[in-house]
Amino acid sequence: MTQTNRQWVLKSRPEGMPRRDDFELREQPVPAVTDGHFLVRNLYLSCDPTQRGWMERDTYAPAVAIGDVMRAVSAARVVVSKHPGYREGDLVCGAFGWQDYALSDGSGLFPIFKLPSGTAAPTGLSLFGITGLSAYFGMLDIGAPQAGDGVLVSAAAGSTGSIAAQIAKIRGARVVGIAGGARKCQWLTEEIGLAAAIDYRSENVRGRIVELLPKGCDVYFDNVGGDILEAALGRLARHARVVLCGAISTYNDREAATGPRNYVNLILRSATMRGFLVFDYAARIPEAVADLGRWAAEGKLKDQIDVAEGFESAPDALRRLFTGENLGKQIVHVAD
Amino acid sequence: MTQTNRQWVLKSRPEGMPRRDDFELREQPVPAVTDGHFLVRNLYLSCDPTQRGWMERDTYAPAVAIGDVMRAVSAARVVVSKHPGYREGDLVCGAFGWQDYALSDGSGLFPIFKLPSGTAAPTGLSLFGITGLSAYFGMLDIGAPQAGDGVLVSAAAGSTGSIAAQIAKIRGARVVGIAGGARKCQWLTEEIGLAAAIDYRSENVRGRIVELLPKGCDVYFDNVGGDILEAALGRLARHARVVLCGAISTYNDREAATGPRNYVNLILRSATMRGFLVFDYAARIPEAVADLGRWAAEGKLKDQIDVAEGFESAPDALRRLFTGENLGKQIVHVAD
C-alpha cells in the first residue's frame, strides 16, 4: 500500500457559516493494517448538519480537535482486514471521516454497520444513515402520526425532512411541508405527493399553516428552529407532538438564537416537545432498515440524493446544507 | 332570601400586574332558586395564576367578559337545592366566582365536585384544588421521578410547587426547590424537608443548580418560565422530563416574554418538555384525591395555606401570587 491518503483536517473553528478555509487538505501515507484492525476505502461521504456542531464545541460528542481529520459518517469498502468481524469487500457505514482511507478496530463513537447485500452505497448514508434513521425514529416514536392527523414538516425537501414527511404520509396523515423556493415546493407536492407545500421564502408561513391545516398541527417535525418553530407552536392541535430533530437556522449563530417566545402554548394545548438523538435508538436500527428498505422497494418512499463530485468538494458540499442548495440527502462521491 | 350578594366584576383588562381597579365591587340580590338549580354560599375563594389569563384573553377557556363576575374556583356550602344531585349542607368545589352566592345547575366549565366528608373547606382548594391536582398529575404523569433522581422545582414554596416537590420526595427523589427569599427557602428545607433550596433573589441560580444537582436535572417542574427555565434547560440529565405547569414570570407581560434560547438542549439531552392542563385529567381526580389525602394524613405531605381575610381582599390576594408574597396556597376567607 503505497498510495497517499488525502485528508481534510479541521484548521479553525468556524465563525458563522463553515468556510473552506476552516479546513486544510493534507496528504498522508495510507496507514498499515495491524492485528485486530481493518482498512476501509471511503466511497461516499455523508453531509449532516450535526457536523457544524462537531466543528465548534463539545455537545453530545466531543468537538473535533484542531488538526484532526474532520469527522463524518461515510460509506466505505473494506480493502484489507485483520479483524475477525470484517472481510475484504464488505460495504460498511461508520464515522470514517473526511479521508480516502481509514483504519478501524470496529469501535468508535458511532456504530459501524454492514449494509444489507444489494444496497447501494449512497442509500447507506441517506435512507439508512443518520438522516433517514432520524426521520424514522423521530416521526414514528415521537410524532406518532395517526391517520387523518395534520402533520407539518420543516426543511421538508432536505434529507431528514423528506423521509419524515413521507413516513407520515404512509401512516395516513395529511402532510404539509415547508421548504425554501419554488423548485423544492414543487418537488414536495409533485414528486413525493405531500398534500401541500409552503415556500418560507415567499409566503407568509403563519397564514399558510392556518389555511392548510385549519385544525392545527397534530405533529410538527422541526429541523430548523427559529421563526418557523414559533409559527408551528402558534398552531398546535390539542395533545400535539413537536419532534425536535434539529435547529439548522441557529447552528451558525448560536449567540443570536432566540427561543420560541410562545412555548407556553405547549401548556395551553397540552402538547409535548421532545428532542432525541438517533444514537438513542441504536438497538432498533435493524427494524428501521427493514421498514425503510421495504417502503422504498414498494415505491412508497422516494430517497432523493444530491451528489457532489470529488473528495475536494467536501467543504463546499457541507456548506450547501446551510445555504439550502441541496435537494434531499447531500453526499460527496469520493471513489467507486 | 333577602340578603345581598356582593360580587367582584371585571371592569377592565389588566395591563401588567392585575390591579384592584381592574375590578368593581357590586351588590346584587341573591338569586332565586329555580327547579334543577342549587344555590351555594362561598366560604373560601381560590387564588390561581391562571386567573390572570382569564382576565385578559381567550386561552383554553374563554376570557371573562367585562362586567361579568370574576371567575374563580371556590369552596362553598349548598344552602338551597332544587337539584337532585345536591343537598343542602353539601360542601362543594367549583368555579362559583368572586361572589357571596352563586346559582348553579351543576354544569360548567370546570367540574363541580363534592368534598369527601370530613375534609376542611380550604383543603378542597389547596390539595384537592387546581394547584394540588396540577402538582399530582404533572409530577407523577409527566415528571415520573424515580428513586434517586435529581428533581428541581421552581416556585417551590407556592401552592403547586410545594405539593409537586413533596410528591417527588415521596417517590424517593433528591428534590431541590427554588423560591424567592430566605423565609421561603428555610421553609423548604426545614418544614417540608427538601434536600436544598435556592433563593433566586440572592443566589446565582445556574451555579447553585450545578452544585446541588451535579448529575443534572432528571425532572424540572416549571411554574415560572423565563430565566429560571433557561437555567434548568442548561442542566438537563439525559432523558430529562421538563414539566410545563405554568410561566408566572411571563403572565403580566407577554410582549416581553422570551423563549428559552437554549431549548436545543432538549435535543442534545434527548429530553422531553411537556405542557398540560389539570382538566385533561378530570377522570382521574378521585385517584389523586385518595393519594393526596392519604399522604397528608400520614404526615408525608404538608399542605400550607395562606389565608387572606374577607371578601373585599380578593383582588389584593390575587396580586400576592405575582409579587410572590404568598407562602403555599393563597385563598380568601369569605364566610364560615
What would your notes on this structure say?
2 copies of one chain form a homodimer. With 336 residues, chain A is an alpha/beta fold. Chain A folds into 2 domains: 4-126 and 304-333, Medium-chain alcohol dehydrogenases, catalytic domain (Quinone Oxidoreductase, Chain A, domain 1, Alpha-Beta Complex), CATH 3.90.180; 130-279, 3-Layer(aba) Sandwich (Rossmann fold), CATH 3.40.50.720. In chain A, 27% of the residues lie in helices and 25% in strands. Chain A contains 10 helices and 15 strands. Chain A has helices at 50-56, 121-125, 130-143, 159-170, 182-191, 205-212, 226-233, 265-268, 285-297, 314-323, and strands spanning 4-10, 23-29, 38-46, 74-81, 91-94, 101-104, 113-114, 150-153, 174-179, 196-199, 217-222, 236-244, 272-275, 305-309, 329-333. In chain A, the strands form 3 sheets. In chain A, strands 3, 4, 5, 6, 7, 14 and 15 form a 7-stranded mixed β-sheet that branches. Chain A has a 6-stranded parallel β-sheet with strand order 10-9-8-11-12-13, sandwiched between helices. In chain A, helix 3 crosses helix 4 (159-170) and helix 3 (130-143) packs across helix 9 (285-297). The first copy, chain A, is globular, with a radius of gyration of 20 Å. The two termini of chain A are 18 Å apart. The mean pLDDT of chain A is 94. At the A-B interface, helix 8 and strand 13 of A face helix 8 and strand 13 of B. Strand 13 of chain A pairs antiparallel with strand 13 of chain B, so a sheet runs across the interface.
